[in-house]
Amino acid sequence: MPFPHEIQSALLFDAPVRHLESVMHSFLNIEAARSGLDYNLVEAKPGVFYRLFGAGETMITLEYVAEPANPDAFRQPVESAITRIYCPDMPQRLMRHRAHILINVSHGALPSTRDIDRVLGKIGYVRPSTTLPQFMRRIELCTLLTRLAQDEQPASVVHWTQSNQLFPGEMFDTLGTGSVPGPLHIHPYLYGGGQSASGKTLAGIRTFGAGHFIDREIRIEPSELPWAANFETILAFLRVATTQNGYIIPDDDTFGPDDHSLSYRVRHIAATDDDVPLYELEPLLHREYGFQSDSYVPRERVFDDRSPPAALMPSAQDERQILLDEWQSKRSMAEGIGGSFEVCASGPQPGATPSARPGFGVRRVFGRKTG
Question: Mean pLDDT of all residues in the chain?
Fold first, then answer.
């Protein structure tokens, strides 16, 4: 899949700054010390603009603008509920800033613009930077530069454009040292869904940024669980997909940590006339918040998929073998990232006759829940 060719951040300052060149030199020293990679300074306007090129055809630009940024760039993220949660005074910060620094990290000498990308698409050209490790490397470099740009003078606001999020400058350093993908890279757009029968407020999540790591965005329909708990699970789903030997959990399988404290079902939602394809996560169990869905299958129904009870299996030999092969394939995927695999009898499906065999549920069990 194509990963974003360019990663950009914008740092907004309440007063003029004079440290752009020191940011550039600090970056070169750190990169030389930790990776031995060299960059050439191919363009410079002292204190205002620097262009670096090298280290696997990486292009880096640093630009200082002694005036406020275009407010149109912030109209959408400033209205996001997550922005108000992270920084209630974000509108005031945006209004009072007087200067900004733009940082861009891209691959190759050819910039990424809408017109250029459209022309390249027409001729079938694929940029040579379309792998997940290369994309993560661009994120790493832009994050480092953004943190260095705050060393001498903290920014009031950082706009991280890959996820189109606004953060208070003092929050960025913590975000920048977290895992990838993490809250810096995934924008959880929150939306309401009224209240539950017990009077709890329902909140749903629709991501922006997940599709840069996997092939779709992620949705959790309005739930009585706290949005932060559901967001943590979205990040866990992404870590499973992007880790070494990682993969997208198959449609209708469930997953959770190895302490069995929570469980979510994954559904692959096809595109419709009104929406793009999505991965949907359905909460089934969250012990910390006393939540258990009617669809949750208790662990007492788990059985050994390598020697399943005959009464649960199809009568036809070819159907049994197809099922066993499917389970073996899914077990291999789970164990390939250090997880485990469970199959459970989920009980007769709604509307089935009393003699019908139960359906099967598949669980992926991964690392323990953190936090």
Answer: 89
DSSP state of 97: -
CA dihedral 212, 213, 216, 218 (to 10 degrees): -100
Q: Is the pLDDT of residue 203 over 70?
A: yes
Task: Give the amino acid at 323.
Answer: L
CA 119, 122, 125, 127 dihedral sign is positive
Contact criterion met (CB below 8 Å) for 175 and 183: yes
Q: What is the pLDDT of residues 145-155, one digit of tens each?
A: 999 999 989 99
* Cβ-based neighbour number of residue 371 at 10 Å: 6
Residue 135 corresponds to which tokens in the numbers above?
């994309």
Tokens of 227: 């949005």
Burial of 303 (0-12, 13-18, 19+ CB in 10 A): middle
Residue for token pair 């009617």: 294
Domain boundaries, the chain: 6-177, 187-296, 300-344
Facing residues of 10 across strands?
A: 102, 159
Which region, left, alpha or beta, applies to residue 104 given φ > 0 means left and ψ of -120 to 50 means alpha?
A: beta
Bridge partners (DSSP) of residue 206 are 189, 219
**Mode of pairing for the β-strands spanning 359-366 and 254-257:** parallel
Phi, psi (deg, nearest 5) at residue 265? -95, 140
Identify the CA nearest to 182 among candidates 232, 107, 117. 232
**What is the rounded distance in angstroms from the CA atom of residue 335 to the CA atom of residue 331?**
6
pLDDT at position 96 is 97
C-beta of residue 264 within 8 angstroms of C-beta of residue 255 = yes
For residues 56 and 116, what is the distance between their CA atoms, to the nearest angstrom? 21
Residue 357 has pLDDT above 50, yes or no: no
Q: Label residues 323-350 b or e (16+ Cβ within 10 Å = b).
A: beeebeebbebbeebebebbbbbeeeee
Phi-psi region of 338 (alpha: psi -120 to 50; beta: other; left: phi over 0): left
CA distance linking residue 11 with residue 25, whole number of Å? 18
The contacts of residue 65 (CB under 8 Å, 6+ apart) are 99, 100, 101, 102
Percent of the chain surpassing pLDDT 70: 87
Copy the structure tokens of residue 274.
Answer: 């009104």
The total of other beta-carbon atoms located within 10 Å of residue 319's CB is 11
